[in-house]
Amino acid sequence: MTSNTPKPAVRTVQDAVDTNASFETETHSDVADHESVLDISKFSLWYGQARALYDVSMSIPRGKVTALIGPSGCGKSTLLRSVNRLNDLVSIVRTEGEMMLNNRSIYDPSVDVISLRKRVGMVFQKSNPFPMSIFENVIYPLRISGERKKSVLKETCERALRSAAIWDEVKDRLNESALGLSGGQQQRLCIARAVAVEPEVLLMDEPCSALDPIATAKIEELIHDIAGRYTVLIVTHNMQQASRVSDFTAFMYLGRLVEYGTTSQIFQTPKLSETEQYVTGRFG
């Protein structure tokens, strides 16, 4: 016999978690004042039977830095990796909902995933330079696209290394192995490689987590420098870092997007108590 008892209303994030339900994001009105480059609508993801994302909807402003924050396991990196479809590499993953990059569907069956990953660059937690020269690392995306003109390759290499604020440190070492660079230099090299093809969005998954404070400061300065030229979506566990480098911040909890607004709003005047508790260190 089917029960006619109505389901309890989802008033808090914990209500949503307890009832395995989605949560209606508290999105501040300021977000809508900016042109978006990436629009995510009711996006959900499962690993087999386990649901990792619950109807996430948000628009990423063009030319701005947006930070995804939240406790470990809340879905930040899963959402980030969905933007360039890295989760496709996991056989048990399935998705629902939509992502639109400059008004074109990311998940349309006709999308060439390799081409998509040129439009959406990625920088990982741990730097991953290839075992080849600094020069070849930077121009690798052009090589695999078939570019052979030496003038184009040289110009792109210098432009990308300058964009990543590492040109002056390596300009006389371009033919040396990238593996000889320091950890911070390797991470900036990976950023140079990511921006070499002028991506529409640059994804950063905790890019400073393996770096010392000095190298971290250089990466944060670099993020400031490239903001405006590129749209950056960054995952970080570091509240101070999110407040320093981002224009907008989205707080996630157990697969739900809880609150989204300008960074000053999220850190100084959040609308939800859960957000306030997290950014002030009272949980998470």
How is the secondary structure organized here?
Blueprint: H1 13-18, E1 26-27, E2 36-47, E3 50-61, E4 65-69, H2 76-83, E5 93-101, E6 104-105, H3 113-119, E7 120-123, H4 134-144, H5 150-163, H6 167-170, H7 183-195, E8 201-205, H8 213-226, E9 231-235, H9 239-245, E10 248-253, E11 256-262, H10 263-268, H11 273-279
Parallel strand pairs: 1-11, 4-9, 4-10, 7-8, 8-9
Antiparallel strand pairs: 2-3, 2-5, 5-6, 10-11
Architecture overview:
The protein has helices at residues 13-18, 76-83, 113-119, 134-144, 150-163, 167-170, 183-195, 213-226, 239-245, 263-268, 273-279, and strands at residues 26-27, 36-47, 50-61, 65-69, 93-101, 104-105, 120-123, 201-205, 231-235, 248-253, 256-262. The protein has 284 residues and is α/β, with parallel strands linked by helices. The protein has two domains: 24-102 and 201-283, Rossmann fold (3-Layer(aba) Sandwich), CATH 3.40.50; 127-199. The protein has a seven-stranded mixed sheet with strand order 1-11-10-4-9-8-7, sandwiched between helices. A four-stranded antiparallel sheet has the order 3-2-5-6, with helices on one face. The longest helix has 14 residues, at 150-163. The N and C termini lie far apart (41 Å).
Quickly describe the structure.
The protein is α/β, with parallel strands linked by helices.
Assembly level: single chain
Task: Tell me about the largest β-sheet.
Answer: 7 strands, mixed
Count of alpha/pi helices = 11
Number of strands: 11
Distance between the termini: 41 Å
In what range is the share of β-strand residues? 15-25%
Give me the Rg, rounded.
20 Å
What is the N-to-C order of secondary-structure elements (H for helix, E for strand)? HEEEEHEEHEHHHHEHEHEEHH
The CATH topology of the largest domain, please?
Rossmann fold
